[in-house]
Specification:
mainly alpha; 2 helices
């Protein structure tokens, strides 16, 4: 019988740029748009609404 103990894995949290790119590419696949154009549009909106914060 093999030893079935698993070694612990360390998780690396993605940074904000990686998260944004994941959303952009997923949206591009679903909508058929170009990822670069979506990334630019998202960046413009983030800059436009940067002064707003989510309520907690």
């Amino acid at each position: 019988m093999k030893n079935s103990k698993k070694t612990p894995q360390t998780l690396i949290m993605p940074d904000s740029e990686q998260l944004i790119w994941a959303v952009v590419t997923s949206t591009a696949v679903e909508t058929g748009q170009e990822p670069q154009k979506l990334a630019e549009a998202l960046k413009e909106k983030r800059e436009k609404y940067a002064h707003l914060r989510l309520a907690v």
